[in-house]
Amino acid sequence: MIAPENPVLAVLCGADHPPDMAAIEDAAVVRYTDERGLADALAGADALFVYDFLSGAVPGAWHAADRLKWLHIASAGVDPVLFPGLRESDVVLTNSRGVFDDAIAEYVLGVVLSFAKDFARSLDLQRAGTWKHRETERIAGREVLVVGTGPIGRAIARMLRAAGMRVSGAGRRARVGDPDFGVVHESAALTRYLPEFDYVVAVAPLTDQTKGMFDAAAFAAMKPSARFVNVGRGELVVTSDLIAALQAGELAGAALDVFETEPLPAESPLWTMPDVLLSPHMSGDFIGWRRTLVEVFAGNFRRWLAGEPLWNVVDKRLGYVPSESQGGAGWATGN
């Protein structure tokens, strides 16, 4: 795909413009816009950079995309822009795969340790001025199932293995001998394997097949001593079923970074439930992540101008970058 001589780039960003865009502005006509002006910005645009990756405005403005050839989203998940109009078009979709892998893996290790070492209760007792000795759990040797075998899932598997945990995966195809997971189970048969695990980590992409995959049946299949961690997409989980499972003692706890509705509604029971850890969709957001997202886009922008193959091309049928495709590692090394 070769960029036109004087490309027009629309950038969906709201009030906060992406940093370090000077080199891109020198090479293209850049139209910064919020959701209200997106249709006007798309008219005649050759490319779209969805910097505001939580926005759902692209489908509503798609009718104005009369010349678009390439859409890049500043996230690993592409569900906000993967609607029928884009799927059926010739527009190439790329994402920011590779930016958040290690940060999310560190988050998962952190919440696993928090559960095992009872940090939340220690903090409560500290604030109450109460000295109460307890015994805590070891994580070495505990069984973990990571549901989602893409780059983030693999980073999680490597980090948890390094801490002594025994990690398996769940993905579209069952297999053995995987370099990061060893055994990968078929996610379509998830409830068959869930009883084996002490921790279940959801990091699958959101597709028609994965939406609502963690429902009442899935939670009922888990050990009562198991903990559930969601760093994937909120819609992977039927929230009412999760709340019911926690209330019934079918799970020992949950750590949730993503939710069906964000922000989490104030009336949600999750806010005050014991053994539930909540964070506001920030597990991958390390200091400097916004600049890194622009670096990824800038690397792909340079390739686009030169007519070179783009990094992180999403298979629009699958909803993610296939594992066998080239990832985004090149942007970090300048290759």
Automatic annotation (TrEMBL):
Listed GO MF terms: NAD binding; oxidoreductase activity, acting on the CH-OH group of donors, NAD or NADP as acceptor
UniProtKB keywords: NAD, Oxidoreductase
Stored SUPFAM superfamilies: Formate/glycerate dehydrogenase catalytic domain-like (SSF52283), NAD(P)-binding Rossmann-fold domains (SSF51735)
PROSITE patterns noted in UniProt: D_2_HYDROXYACID_DH_3
Domain D-isomer specific 2-hydroxyacid dehydrogenase catalytic: 18-314
Domain D-isomer specific 2-hydroxyacid dehydrogenase NAD-binding, first and last residues per copy: 110-283
Matching PANTHER family: 2-HACID_DH_C DOMAIN-CONTAINING PROTEIN (PTHR43333), D-ISOMER SPECIFIC 2-HYDROXYACID DEHYDROGENASE NAD-BINDING DOMAIN-CONTAINING PROTEIN (PTHR43333:SF1)
Pfam families cross-referenced by the UniProt entry: 2-Hacid_dh (PF00389), 2-Hacid_dh_C (PF02826)
Transmembrane segments: none
Family: Belongs to the D-isomer specific 2-hydroxyacid dehydrogenase family.
Protein name (record): D-2-hydroxyacid dehydrogenase
Keyword DNA damage among UniProt keywords: no
